[in-house]
């Protein structure tokens, strides 16, 4: 008779998986990817190292899963902001501001997700999610063009350039004191909106 996993067994495994991912998140929040070791994760999760490898075959696989889950939360926040009422440029601004504010709220984590050198599997996730962000902005920009709210342009190129500029512009400020955050965000958004609307960049 073939073994069939019980619901209790499934729940226990899922609980352990969540403990591992939570431990990973806490360690990455504190020091980024580079310094985190599997033994540290196992200890913080309260499990044996051998148990950890039953859930994730390698650190690269674990980090890729953590990256996907962490970034999916950020994507949902940006997507919700882009659905706010208003003109297309206002919705784009709302999405940019949510992205930037959340990044600067947890700078160590944001650095890990946006720019820290990582293994190929994690870098693949990073590229995939940059494309996700760009598609979300592209939809709003396309709507704005179609309804005469924005000047004609290549919505895909604009959105891709905007997401790239936003991510790269945040890399340095992630290390700045919190008091500088809102001014930094305002400058980044002004730059992006100047390109989007083709208006003069404010002095």
UniProtKB/TrEMBL annotation:
Keywords of the record: DNA-binding
DNA-binding region: 37-56
Organism domain of life: Bacteria
Family matches, as Pfam families: TetR_N
GO MF, one annotated term: transcription cis-regulatory region binding
SUPFAM superfamilies tied to this protein: Homeodomain-like, Tetracyclin repressor-like, C-terminal domain
Residue ranges of domain HTH tetR-type in the record: 14-74
PROSITE patterns xrefs: HTH_TETR_2 (PS50977)
Annotated protein name in UniProt: HTH tetR-type domain-containing protein
The species this protein was found in: Pseudidiomarina salinarum
Lineage: Bacteria, Pseudomonadati, Pseudomonadota, Gammaproteobacteria, Alteromonadales
């Amino acid at each position: 008779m073939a073994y069939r996993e019980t619901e209790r067994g499934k729940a226990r495994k899922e609980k352990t998986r969540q403990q591992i991912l939570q431990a990973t998140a806490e360690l990455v929040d504190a020091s980024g990817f580079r310094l985190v070791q599997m033994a540290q994760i196992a200890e913080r999760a309260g499990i044996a190292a051998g148990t950890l490898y039953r859930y994730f075959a390698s650190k690269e696989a674990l980090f890729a899963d953590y990256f996907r889950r962490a970034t999916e939360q950020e994507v949902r926040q940006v997507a919700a902001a882009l659905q706010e009422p208003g003109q297309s440029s206002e919705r784009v601004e709302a999405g940019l501001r949510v992205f930037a504010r959340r990044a600067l709220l947890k700078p160590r984590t944001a650095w890990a997700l946006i720019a820290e050198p990582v293994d190929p599997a994690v870098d693949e996730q990073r590229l995939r999610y940059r494309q996700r962000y760009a598609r979300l902005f592209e939809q709003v920009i396309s709507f704005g063009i179609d309804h005469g709210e924005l000047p004609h342009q290549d919505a895909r190129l604009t959105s891709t350039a905007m997401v790239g500029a936003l991510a790269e512009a945040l890399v340095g400020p992630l290390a700045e004191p919190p008091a500088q955050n809102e001014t930094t965000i305002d400058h980044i958004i002004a730059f992006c909106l100047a390109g989007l609307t083709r208006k003069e960049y404010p002095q």
